[in-house]
Amino acid sequence: MDQFLQALINGIMLGGFYGVMVLGFSVIWGVMGVINLAHGEFVMVGAYITWVLNKQFGWDPFWALIVVIPIMFVLGYVLQHILINRLVERPHLISLLVTFGLSIIIANIVKLVYTASPRVTDTALKGFWRVGGVTFPITKTYILLAALIIMVALYLFLQHTRMGKSIRAAAQNKEAARMVGIEIGKVYALTFGICIALTGAAGMLISPTQAIFPFMGPPLTLKAFAITAMSGLGSIPGALLGGIVLGLVEIFIGTYVPGVGTNLGVVSSFVLLVVVLVTRPQGLFGGLKPATEVQ
Amino acid sequence: MPGNGKQPLLECRGVSKYFGGLAAVNNVDFVVYPGEMVGLIGPNGSGKTTLFDCLSRVQQVSSGQIFFKGVDITKKKPYQIAHMGMARTFQVIRVYRKLTVLENMLLSRQWRGESLFKQLRPTHPRTEKRARELIDFLMLSHLTDELAGNLSGGQRRLLEIGMALMPDPDLILLDEATSGVNPTLIEQIKDRIRQLNQEQGKAFLLIEHNIHFIADLCSRVFVLNYGEKLAEGTPEEIINNEAVIEAYFGT
Amino acid sequence: MLRPLVNIWQRYRLGRWGLLLLVLFLFLLPLPQFIAPERKLVTNSLLFSFTQMFMLVTLASNWNLTGGFTGYVDFGHAVFFGLGAYGTGVLMNKLGWPFWPAMLIGAVLAAVFALLIGWATLRLKGPYFSIAMLGTFVAMREVIRVLKPITGGGEGLTLPPYLNRPLFYYLTLILAVLVVSLIAWIRRTEFGASLIAIREDEVGAEMRGINTTLHKITAFWIAAFLTGLVGGMWAYQNTFIDPDVVFFESRTVELVMMTMLGGLGTVAGPVIGAATIYWLRDVVWANFLQYHLIVQGLLLILIVLFMPEGILGTLGDRSATSLNRIVRKWFGLTRNGTEGV
Q1: Hey, are the CB atoms on C189 and B121 less than 8 Å from each other?
Q2: Is residue C321 within 8 angstroms of chain B, CB to CB?
Q3: Which among B96, B98, B116 is the nearest to C191, CB-wise?
Q4: Pairing of strands B220-225, B228-233
Q5: A258 touches chain C (CB under 8 A)
Q6: Residue C333, pLDDT above cutoff 50
Q7: Least confident window among A105-114, C56-65, C285-294
Q8: pLDDT, greater one: C154 or B132
Q9: Residue A97: inside a domain, yes or no?
């Protein structure tokens, strides 16, 4: 029973992280119609920024958020202007290929600068809380907390601010949005900037939990794709729920299936995705355009 | 009397199609006899194309049964229906735009009952001959090597009809064959359809908004409204039917 | 005297590309004799380069069968390469099999896997299919890593060393020629025409009597088998395989890039694209080693954005399709699909 509870807790923590990790990817896809295969690389960049701050300046990772978010925002904004805007509203395969090329470029630039050796970030928030027979790793608890705060903040932003509403309007109907005076170009640039900032934040959140290296991106990108495809484009609650489902599946498989390491995380997210798409084309929570039917 | 006691070519029993909670087609029964020309009309959104989708098996039926030549085809796949002798055109024209007219026709040839091995041959001269004959029949000879995307709307419709005719089907479902076509061409299409029906005994089920077209060609018409069968009868009966008039023109 | 030859040529419609291919083949065949004195042949690096290039040409052509002809842009095709490589490696290393049967079984393994995975993924459309295959590729890498007792896990496997550059040169050259000829032939058959129909309009094709599922899966496993063969050859020549070297990230997108550069859906496109990219890479590798992947990434972006029809398409070859068209099919269908009227 304890093992089950532990797995449950771990799964939810992992899932919470996945939820915030997926956000940027999901919103870009939902609002701009761009599938960003360089997503994992942006997470990686956020993680590296955190690590640099940690090693060079002794900052605790959680403080790094203050720096990571603005830097990533600017990076995203600029990238949008020079590259991403050529991909918007074009066939998905174009964005897949171009962002894949981008991912290779980013990963290899980082490798050039910092080499491929894994890097470790230290945090002061270490240790465990024990409740009953269950352990709550402190770091991960704070990560979960941060993740939830970020998600709520994004939600409030989208629901209650003018910019947020413009973004939602643009996602639903570009022509109508234009007609009421919303500058789509600007909305896109901002959206992309915000999403990359979020993704960078996720990078910060991952850095205390594992060693980072330049090529850690792809599994994360694939998981983001899996979660988004299953639970709906641009949906924040969907991202969180989908993330938790994936997190639970990964942890439970790791716990109960003997001899299997956590490497199978990507495998399980894939199998899960394909199974869901084939058996329930409308997505886990319904409401998706079927991925299987060529209408 | 329709059919003269012959076995129906196509029969629908209680066919319904739901999208979520909405019934696009609701409990429709009808019959088409061999060699008949039947019209299907109804206001926009009444479910005509959805019904066609169900018949040609592009969509799954939510409930009900469909029989073609006495065989239950409710669960069959579209290509199996094509093999059995039913062809169909689409409201939004589906031709292979970047291929020539001739290539389009060749790609629509009769694939009946062929294993994959048999397909490891280049196109048979017989197929090409038939394709060219049909192209002539449809007055598209001068466009044989023209890219389908460059044709006018009306010409593309003719091409699509030609593609449907390639496998020599017994029943052809035409979805708005006259929409976007100029009046002269419409007359010619009408003649061709009549010719196919009278000389080769092909049955047609026509979705149309053009009442004259239907009235000229069809011996029977039935009307859909909000997915349900509203009325059925000869063209004259339908045109004078109060319920039909109301469905089309509102109160 | 030439008459009968010309007749045969015309009957099978081999055309000018066929002529070019034949000339190239005749030129390449005796090449090893001319390159270097007898004793240096075995380790000749030029032969090695050509061998790699022939492998790329084969891989790109295989990929084109699913991607260019049928319109299912497979981002994970290299998984079949990996399966072929590992099939061969495991059989040779763990069971002591000789090369030829091992390579064959490796390819069969790839084909069987294609049947299994294709059954699920070929139902998905557009980007979902592409990413599902990419995921399969990445997932397989991890699966192989985990199956340590069989595959040697992260440490990899060593195959019996066999250094004979001319042999591999001929092997890969012959395979490349066979595959390109096969693709050219398929294109002229009804089977090929059906594939193209599926690419252009899958629903329409099915309505007109083409069993799309059967066709898709057939093209898929054939491409997988042929790719598996290349994987086996590569493994033997490389002598060492491990999950990261075999399932190398960019390997899979390389294929897409090469075919796109040459012209998706053409027969000669993958050949041209593969050759071009290979020599380009060689130049970059020689001069800018650390940047070569970055350059590759840039190249991909530039090709996709500015030359989606590829070289052949831009030159006006009508059979070249492009990403836009393949995907417009999906797009057009989801926007004006047969909505209920």
Answers
A1: yes
A2: yes
A3: B116
A4: antiparallel
A5: no
A6: no
A7: C285-294
A8: B132
A9: yes
Decide if A185 is inside a domain: yes
Instruction: Give the mean pLDDT of chain A.
Output: 82
Record: contact C75-A96, CB cut-off 8 A: yes
DSSP assignment string, C149-209: HHH-GGG-EEPPP---HHHHHHHHHHHHHHHHHHHHHHHHSHHHHHHHHHHH-HHHHHHTT
Which pair of tokens denotes residue B8? 């129906």
User: Lowest-pLDDT range, A41-45, A238-242, B2-6, B198-202?
Assistant: B2-6
List chains adjacent to chain B, taking adjacency as at least 3 C-beta pairs closer than 8 Å.
C
Cβ–Cβ contact C197 with B under 8 A: yes
Quote the minimal CA–CA distance from A117 to chain C in Å: 15
Question: Hey, are the CB atoms on C323 and A91 less than 8 Å from each other?
Answer: yes
CA A177 to chain centre: 27
Q: Answer with the residue of higher pLDDT: B31 or A260.
A: B31
What are A295's two structure tokens?
A: 């209408």
Q: How far is A188 from A87, CA to CA, in rounded Å? A: 11
One-letter-per-residue 3-state SS of A8-55: HHHHHHHHHHHHHHHHHHHHHHHHHCCCCCCHHHHHHHHHHHHHHHHH
Averaged over A151-164, what is the pLDDT? Answer: 85
Domain presence at residue A30: yes
- pLDDT tens for A100-143 read 889 989 998 999 898 888 888 877 777 777 777 677 888 888 88
- How would residue C57 be classed by pLDDT, with cut points 50, 70 and 90? very high
Window 197-216 of A, Cβ < 8 Å to C: 215
Gap from C56 CA to chain A (nearest CA, Å): 19
Q: b or e along B115-145 (b: 16 or more beta carbons within 10 Å of the residue's beta carbon)?
A: eeeebeeebeeebeebbeebbebbebeebee
> Which residues in chain C (274-293) have CB-CB distances under 8 A to chain B?
none
**Cβ-nearest to A267 among C143, C308, C326:** C143
**Partner C contacted by B225 (CB < 8 A):** no
- Pairwise CB contact (< 8 Å): C73 & A93: yes
By Cβ distance, the residue of B59, B88, B107 closest to C193 is B107
A237 within a domain of the structure (yes/no): no
Whole-angstrom CA distances from C78 to B163, C82, C138 are: 38, 6, 10
Q: What is the mean pLDDT of chain C?
A: 80
Q: How far is Cα C246 from Cα C228, in angstroms, rounded to an integer?
A: 12
- Cβ neighbour number for residue C334 with a 10 Å cutoff: 15
Q: Give the nearest chain C residue to B173 (CA atoms).
A: C207
Q: How far is C78 from chain B (nearest CA, A)?
A: 27
Q: Which residue of C has its CA nearest to B48?
A: C341
When comparing pLDDT for A280 and C133, which is higher? Answer: C133
> Is C142 in Cβ contact with A266 (below 8 Å)?
yes
**pLDDT (0 to 100) of residue C115:** 94
Range of the structural domain that residue A173 is part of: 16-217
**Maximal CA-CA distance, chain C:** 76
- Subunits touching C (CB < 8 Å, at least 3 pairs)? A, B
Cβ atoms within 10 Å, residue C251 = 17
ipTM: 0.81
Give yes or no for residue C323 having a pLDDT over 80: no
Cα separations in angstroms, C65 against C224, C263, C313: 10, 12, 17
Within an 8 Å CB–CB cutoff, is residue C208 touching chain B?
yes
What's the pLDDT at C287?
Answer: 74
Give the count of domains, chain A: 1
Model confidence at C228, pLDDT cuts 50, 70, 90, reads: very high
Q: Are strands B63-68 and B71-72 parallel, antiparallel or unpaired?
A: antiparallel
CB contact at 8 A, A251 and A15 = no
Interface size B-C, in CB pairs within 8 Å, comes to 110
- For residue range A190-204, list pLDDT tens digits in order: 889 999 999 999 998
